[in-house]
Design a protein that fits this description.
The structure holds two protein chains of two kinds. Chain A has helices at 29-35, 89-92, 116-123; strands at 10-11, 16-18, 24-27, 38-42, 49-50, 55-61, 65-69, 74-79, 101-105. Chain A is of the alpha+beta class. Chain A starts with 9 loop residues before the first strand and ends with a helix. Chain B is an alpha+beta fold. Chain B folds into three domains: 9-52 and 146-236, Probable tRNA modification gtpase trme, domain 1 (Gyrase A, domain 2, 2-Layer Sandwich), CATH 3.30.1360; 56-143, 2-Layer Sandwich (Alpha-Beta Plaits), CATH 3.30.70.1400; 284-358, Aminomethyltransferase beta-barrel domains (Elongation Factor Tu (Ef-tu), domain 3). Chain B contains eight helices and 19 strands. Chain B has helices at residues 9-14, 34-43, 63-70, 121-135, 158-165, 210-218, 226-236, 272-281; strands at 18-22, 25-30, 46-49, 56-59, 83-89, 95-103, 112-115, 140-143, 148-154, 178-183, 186-191, 200-206, 222-224, 285-292, 303-305, 311-321, 326-334, 343-348, 351-357. In chain B, the strands form four sheets. A six-stranded mixed sheet of chain B has the order 10-11-12-9-3-13, sandwiched between helices. In chain B, strands 14-17-16-15-18-19 form a six-stranded antiparallel beta barrel. The longest helix of chain B is centred in the middle third of the chain and has 15 residues, at 121-135. Chain B starts with 8 loop residues before the first helix and ends in an 8-residue tail after the last strand. Classes of the chains: A alpha+beta, B alpha+beta. Chain A binds chain B through residues 1, 36-37, 39-40, 42, 58, 60, 62-63, 65, 84, and chain B through 16, 29-30, 33-35, 227, 230-231, 295-297, 299, 319-320, 322, 327, 349.
């Protein structure tokens, strides 16, 4: 099975992605497939400060609970509240409408993350 | 230790199933999605490979006595072709496993077949043969788990699907009744039993016929994995061995686990005296359902508390019910808090979420 791995994003080994232009964070196509039907998402509040690699929320599928980790340190500037009623968007559109939070962050921190090519190798 | 694989493993792999380890077996957990498979069983029909379930055959002059001593239900009530749900208990009345006992049709060589849960077949075999030898019973016990495959066809359309493929009168079977029937040229024991709450059948057959039986249903029946099997059984409050009870991690008696109907105290079995005492004294905790009234999902190990925060129990299984789209759980609470409708809390990652005790099944039967 092949998974979508957009070239313009950066990734964590734990399967989160961040868009360097918008600061949006989500989980990868591979991760949503592994989890199966997502039924609940628990996210931080706007204004919360996150540390890189720290747990900042939870994605629950029918079968499992999975912590989600911050790709970089930063302040939460927006939260995808649509997921409260439509958590399935994480499955349907993990890089689009299924985004989780938006962060204000320092671009230099992106250097510690995986490129799309490196992430593709990890999930191959 | 190497994981055991069901005879249909290759077919599941070809179909793109995801696999999981369960009871020492490598089994399909999901073919399409749990919600899709779950809905198919509630609305139409699904087929499950349940070849990880154990099969032990018992025969000989003392076969009935042996079964009676080692299971809590009354096997003398079974005519050939009848089955019953039962428990296997130790001297303290603690459940080692739950099982279905079949008194096989007279056409069969063996008299009894019972079905321990995945990974429990060897311990059941040891228990049966050790007890037989201690009591000097004349009985033959065979662990035939590797010789048999097993599928479950479940859902409102299951009777028509199975009937169309079986040469026996499966539609005439009462609940917990079994008969010999040929399906796709394979000799099967077809039993009106299942673990989903729906109408349906479980088919037991020689392993080398597994492919033919599976293929006979493949085009008209949603293949389902252990994930959907778990959510379906939770909606009906059926126990999962090793999770809702476990002799080491969570020792429970049949009365605590809500299956007192499968205990016949007027029979002689291992654990009877302990269970009689508990029957007279009552249980401290009861197996209940719980419905969350706030966002979150109850999971195994989460505490159940009063609204004031006093711990009164623990969740043993939980999920977001695909049928109800509500978070539901199963677990044990102190007797005083076990009444249907009781207001409690389930502690989800440190926060007590409002919840209500809900006597299963969660959905209308």
């Amino acid at each position: 099975m092949s998974f979508d791995v957009p070239d313009n994003l950066y990734y964590l080994e734990s399967h989160e992605w961040i868009d360097p232009d918008t600061g949006r964070v989500g989980i990868s196509d591979f991760a949503q497939d592994e989890l199966g039907d997502v039924v609940f998402v628990e996210l931080p509040g706007v204004g919360d400060e996150l540390d890189a690699d720290s747990e900042f929320g939870v994605v629950e599928s029918i079968k499992a609970v999975s912590d989600i980790y911050a790709p970089v340190s930063g302040e939460v500037t927006d939260v995808n509240e649509t997921l409260e009623d439509e958590p399935e968007l994480v499955n349907d559109d993990p890089f689009g409408d299924g985004w989780l939070v938006e962060l204000d962050f320092d671009d230099a921190d992106l250097d510690d993350l995986l490129t799309a090519e490196e992430y593709r190798d990890q999930i191959a | 230790m190497a994981q055991r694989r069901p005879p249909l493993y290759g077919r599941h792999e070809d179909r793109g199933a995801k696999f999981t380890e369960f009871g020492g077996w490598q089994m399909p957990v999901e073919f399409d999605s749990i919600s899709t498979e779950h809905a198919a069983v509630r609305d139409a029909a699904g087929i499950f490979d349940v070849s990880h379930m154990g099969e032990i055959e018992v025969s000989g002059p003392d076969a009935e006595r042996l079964m009676q001593r080692l299971t809590t239900n009354d096997v003398t009530a079974l005519d050939p072709g009848d089955a019953q749900y039962s428990a296997i208990t130790d001297e303290d009345g603690v459940m080692l496993d739950d099982t279905v006992v079949y008194r096989l049709p007279e056409s069969r060589d063996a008299e009894f077949l019972f079905v321990p849960n995945a990974g429990h077949d060897e311990e059941a075999y040891d228990r049966w043969t050790t007890y037989r030898d201690e009591q000097d019973f004349a009985a033959t016990v065979d662990n035939v788990t590797a010789d048999y495959g097993m599928v479950a066809v479940q859902g409102p359309e299951a009777p028509d699907l199975v009937s169309a493929r079986a040469d026996g009168d499966v539609l005439d079977l009462s609940k917990f009744e079994a008969t010999d029937a040929s399906v796709a040229g394979v000799d099967c024991l077809v039993a009106n039993t299942g673990y989903t709450g729906e109408r349906g059948f479980e088919l037991v057959f020689p392993s080398d016929g597994a492919g033919a039986v599976w293929d006979a249903f493949a085009s008209d029946c949603q293949p389902c994995g252990l994930g959907a099997r778990d959510t379906l059984r939770m909606e009906y409050g059926f126990l999962l061995s090793g999770q809702d009870f476990d002799p080491e991690e969570n020792p429970r008696t049949p009365y605590e686990a809500g299956i007192g109907f499968a205990v016949k105290l007027d029979t002689e079995f291992v654990g009877r005296d302990a269970l009689e005492a508990q029957y007279e004294q009552g249980v401290d905790q009861q197996f209940v359902g719980v419905t969350l009234r706030e966002r979150g999902v109850p999971r195994h190990g989460y505490e159940i508390t009063t609204p004031d925060g006093d711990t009164v129990g623990e969740v043993t299984s939980g999920t977001m019910s695909p049928t109800l789209d509500e978070p539901i759980g199963l677990g044990y609470v102190d007797e005083a808090h076990a009444e249907d409708g009781e207001s409690v809390r389930v502690v989800v990652r440190g926060t007590g979420k409002k919840a209500t005790i809900t006597t299963p099944p969660f959905i209308d039967q």
